[in-house]
Specification:
single chain, mainly alpha, 7 helices, Four Helix Bundle (Hemerythrin (Met), subunit A)
């Protein structure tokens, strides 16, 4: 076979196959999240009082803190990629470590939220659980699983960076960065949908 027809090591798109696979995976995940949002919007329109009352019971201040944590982690992820491409292993280690800590911080805040909901009987199967909280735990729980899934390879890259040659695969970090930015973006949509039903909150404050 002529070299012109041998495509084993040279994809037609000039994009690494791992990055293409990540884009395909993210497209499938987008369909999952779109289904959640679509069902949420349809059911909210017919149960606005229940959804509004549930939203008013959420702690938007903790959710705002988590939003800033994830936005900051997106920045540190981008900086880790930049420094690894510049072959600055020490700075890469610093920023991938900060990104991982951002993930831990997000999960800790989420644990505080979940603990409060359990205390108030809002967990599935408890007496005050409603349709709104079914969506709340489904959407935020599914998102938290994605956060954990991103932190696992981050931890590996961080510890691998202590080896003699450091972490030698910038394109893998860039591919992971695509995933992490997607996770952050989904939270940007989840946050206002669940926590900021502003008209209802304003009506509650008016009473």
């Amino acid at each position: 076979m002529s070299s012109a027809l041998n495509l084993a090591h040279e994809p037609l798109t000039k994009i690494p196959s791992g990055k293409l696979a990540m884009w395909a995976f993210l497209a499938s995940e987008l369909m999952f999240f779109s289904g959640f949002f679509g069902a949420f919007i349809v059911l909210r329109s017919g149960n606005y009082d229940v959804f509004g009352a549930g939203s008013a019971m959420l702690d938007w201040k903790l959710a705002t803190l988590n939003t800033f944590i994830l936005i900051g982690s997106s920045l540190t992820m981008a900086l880790s990629i930049y420094h690894l491409e510049k072959k600055n292993n020490n700075m890469f280690r610093l920023f991938i470590g900060l990104t991982t800590l951002g993930g831990f911080g997000f999960l800790i805040v989420k644990w505080i939220e979940y603990s409060a909901k359990f205390h108030h009987g809002l967990f599935p199967g408890q007496e005050h659980h409603t349709l709104f909280f079914s969506f709340y735990f489904l959407m935020t729980g599914f998102h938290a699983v994605h956060v954990i899934a991103g932190m696992i390879p981050m931890g590996y890259m961080f510890f691998r960076s202590f080896s003699k040659d450091g972490y030698p695969y910038p394109w893998k970090v860039e591919t992971l960065g695509l995933y992490w930015h997607f996770v952050d973006l989904m939270w940007i949509f989840i946050f206002p949908a669940l926590y900021l039903m502003i008209p209802y909150h304003a009506a509650v404050a008016g009473h």
